[in-house]
Amino acid sequence: MAERTEVAVVGAGLLGLAAARSLAERGHEVVVLESATTGHDRAGSKGTARIFRLGYTDPLYVALAVATLPLWRELEAASGTTLLRQCGQITFGEGLDDLTAAMGEAGAECSEMDPNEAAERWPGYRFPGRLVYEPASGVLAASECLSALERVGSFEVRHDAKVAELADDGRRVRLSGGFGTLEAQTAVVSAGAWSGPLLSSLGVDAHLAPTLEQVAYLMPKAPVALGSLPVFIEWGEHAVYGLPDGDRLKIALHGGGPPADPDAAELVASPELVGRLEKAANRLLPGFSFDPAATERCFYDNTTDADFVLDRIGNVVVGAGTSGHGFKFGPLLGELLADLATGREPHVALGRFSLRRPSLAAGSSPALRR
Q1: Where are the alpha helices (DSSP H) in 263-357?
Q2: Phi/psi zone of residue 166: left (φ > 0), alpha (ψ -120 to 50 degrees), beta?
Q3: Are 1 and 181 in contact (CB under 8 A)?
Q4: Is there a contact between 117 and 90 (Cβ–Cβ < 8 Å)?
Q5: Which among 31, 336, 365, 368 counts the fewest CB atoms within 10 Å?
Q6: CA 204, CA 123: separation in Å to the nearest integer?
């Protein structure tokens, strides 16, 4: 007879761990099945730093970020770990009027900043043209976030337990793989770039398209307190962002990578993408040397409209399609997935995140969420 649990969560990334914690806090028995180890090299939640930003051109996402901020602070208190450092963010490029309007609608603080003032305040940066500054945004210690969720959550995590197939008979979900078989009353699928193939075993096409993105880590040319630098994002045809990460500056292209198989793709630097990062660094980062201290590849789990997938089909809950901008919402998304798993009415309307929305199937390539 197969082993049984109340709720099985597939994936020990941020969404999976956040959902497991919320479910366990509500008194449910939870087992998390992770294909490798938490934060492994191919995981979407890997790494040491992620951006927390309030600035979106869509009021919904600004409101969601505002609602998530106290949940990060609550996790900090519960775990005794500092997770979010609010160093501020500079945004420039396209869409600034929409961004300031959306932030104003949600009551999030932002203001325009003179480029000369920014250059004087942060001489390692050079920002062209109009700038918007948001003081409440900053940097999340990504790996510490995962560790904190595991430490404070009353749930079991099983590593090296890759789920290959799902079956829902209307009463229970059967999860099978090299680890054997586990049956659950409800399953939460939050497997990042592997979510699409796994859902296809249920006959569900989630229209997910993994891509392989490029990251580089730069060292300053002269001693500088990197912790005093803000996050920056330049929106345009090729979006680029940067954030202080310890003694290095992490820079990356947002959504610039090619389609990729998360199992088969080689995690080697792309000369073409690194070249694009070098051009951006030469324009924007006079205080840093573009001789990367390290490069890194990471997977995005994309939808065609850049909105998340938060839905339930039968006894299977889906948390996927974070499209390179979901980490900041982790604790909130965990609560919403727990609501779906337990039949509780979510406090956020989730119609826009439905698996059945027309825009999910209508697109032909991944979009970017500004």
Answers
A1: 271-284, 330-342
A2: beta
A3: no
A4: no
A5: 365
A6: 51
Count other Cβ atoms within 10 Å, centred on residue 275: 11
Q: How confident is the model at residue 1 (pLDDT cuts 50, 70, 90)?
A: low
The CATH-assigned architecture of domain 3-362 is: 3-Layer(bba) Sandwich (3.50)
Burial of 129 (0-12, 13-18, 19+ CB in 10 A): exposed
Q: Which amino acid, residue 208?
A: L
Q: How many CA atoms lie within 13 A of 283 on its CB side?
A: 14
Give CA–CA dist 166/315, Å, rounded: 11
pLDDT in tens, 295-304: 999 999 999 9
* Each residue's pLDDT tens digit, 264-290: 999 999 999 999 999 999 999 999 999
Stretch 44-53: mean pLDDT? 96
- Total count of residues recorded for the chain: 370
pLDDT of residue 364: 63
Spans of all domains in the chain: 3-362
What is the spatial distance between Cα 259 and Cα 216, in angstroms, rounded to a whole number? Answer: 19
Q: Give 295's contacts (C-beta < 8 A, 6+ positions apart).
A: 214, 215, 216, 217, 269, 274
3-state SS assignment for residue 292: strand
Tens-place pLDDT, residues 126-145: 998 999 999 999 999 999 99
Strand 3-10 vs strand 180-189: parallel, antiparallel, or unpaired?
parallel
Computed over every residue of the chain, the mean pLDDT equals 95
Cβ-contact 346, 317 below 8 angstroms: no
Residues with Cβ within 8 Å of residue 2, at least 6 apart in sequence: 174, 180, 181, 182, 183
Return d(Cα 56, Cα 132) in angstroms, integer: 12
Q: Residue 154 gets which letter from DSSP?
A: -
CA–CA separation, 162 and 225 (whole Å) = 42
Radius of gyration of the chain from its Cα atoms, rounded to whole angstroms: 20
pLDDT value for 2 = 77
The CA–CA distances, whole Å, from 126 to 115, 134, 281, 285 equal 8, 17, 10, 6
Confidence of residue 225 (pLDDT cuts 50, 70, 90): confident
